[in-house]
Amino acid sequence: MQTRRTFVGSAAMLAPQTRITGAIVVDPKPLFDISPYLYMQFMEPLGVTDSSVEAAWDYDRDDWRADFMDTVAGLAPDVVRYGGLYSRYYRWREGVGPADRRPGMRNYVWGGKETNRVGAHEFVDFCRRVRAEPLYCVNFLGDGEKRYRDAGRVGDSAEAADWVSYANDPSNRERRAHGHAEPYNVKLWQIGNETSYGTATFRRDEAIERTIEFSKAMRSRDRSIQLIGWGDRGGNPDGYWAPELVRRAGEHIHYVAFHMMGQSPTRSDTVLRGLRYQSAPEQAWEELIELSDRVESRVSEMEQAAGTHPIAITEGHLSLRPGNANPILAEWLSAVYHARSLNIYQRHGARVRIATAADFQGNRWTVNAVTLQTPRGVSYLMPVGSIAKLFKQRGGKQAVAVTASPSSLDIAASRTGDRVFLHVLNMSYTNSCEASFTVSGVALKGGRVFAIAPSNPREYVSQDQPDVFRPVETALQELRWTFPARSVSAVELTA
Prior knowledge:
Blueprint: E1 20-33, E2 40-43, H1 52-55, E3 57-58, E4 63-64, H2 66-75, E5 79-82, E6 105-106, E7 113-114, H3 120-129, E8 133-138, H4 146-150, H5 157-168, H6 173-177, E9 188-191, H7 204-219, E10 226-230, H8 242-249, E11 255-260, H9 281-306, E12 311-316, H10 335-347, E13 352-355, E14 359-362, E15 368-373, E16 378-381, H11 383-393, E17 398-404, E18 409-416, E19 419-426, E20 433-439, E21 446-452, E22 472-475, E23 480-483, E24 488-494
Parallel strand pairs: 1-20, 2-5, 5-8, 8-9, 9-10, 10-11, 11-12, 12-13, 14-15
Antiparallel strand pairs: 1-17, 3-4, 6-7, 15-16, 17-18, 18-19, 19-24, 20-23, 21-22, 21-24
């Protein structure tokens, strides 16, 4: 991060702001209940690539790092998913029982070796401590990959069913023998991870038949669990799997899974590669808006593909060259993509019921919500984490519509009782926007604004300034507010 200082221009060098005026009008009629799982995080052991799980564990205390727990408590994820590509070769029994007896395993995708020190009990305990629902992605026959079958790393439907019993059956002898009398009560389980990506995996029809098989086996152990089936498109020639999945296996699954990654610039002169953005930050900002437009179109495609089934975006992040580690993701410049993506998920929340905008934690990648400095014990939120925290803490339970607003503002609105919440991104790089607030048919008493508005668009977070993107609270003296250029705000209005 130190090299970045030579590129950061002062706020005084930015063009003077022009104030745009307009009105934000909200219809308070509830549209749908916002899912309690809309702000998910995704945890995967990433080996030598980005030491996510191992870096979060304090081996001296034999517990999760205290600084990590404090940071996550503020982030307050609704759901934490364990799995990903790792689930293709993960055998859950290697992660239960006495920690000193658990076998280590090769990380086939990300390199290195995993100790399995963090297993089922530790993960579920973590989720309970931060008040998140655990979500397991099961070993779905290695997602059809021959190399895992040849290595003996494939888990069948019986193994998945046994995992459900271990987690949820109050009388499960195996779990009780390991010293855990109380069941974990894991509600959410995903069958298949990126199974349509690449040609080494199952073809669609076999994957659907296997999904039905897994569903029947797993729900025979606990009828109350909710299952997520894989429905995205990918390297296989079948397009989106969701329509056929829903047609043939819809009664066996509760959600259809998609992933929101692989966003790449389309401009031939793109600056979103390497360090090019540092000499053209305004172009980078505009390109990131273009990428967020594609998030909107992708979500619309998912809705069409999934029919009436709820959608689960169980992985998603902005990955720019160099892969998963572009420094722009530590800078405020990236806020426009993250804030708009989260707003899109909420506006589509009638169908999008589970969603994430980042990987969870790690010490090397910049696509994470939380960075773990090692060996120094410092954890901090990346810009995407700061925005997710703000929106999660200052949001309502029911979606409502914004019927009028200035064109530079991207807004998602919600309410709880007599409070109306607005998640507001000022997409203008140079202009502030003064807006009045109206809730149709409702007399407003006042409100508060929680704004993240760095004067320097190149501002960045680091271990030396971990709280640089902390929102500033201001009480509304009148029913209007000026949103600074490039700002992200949560507005709370009281009727």
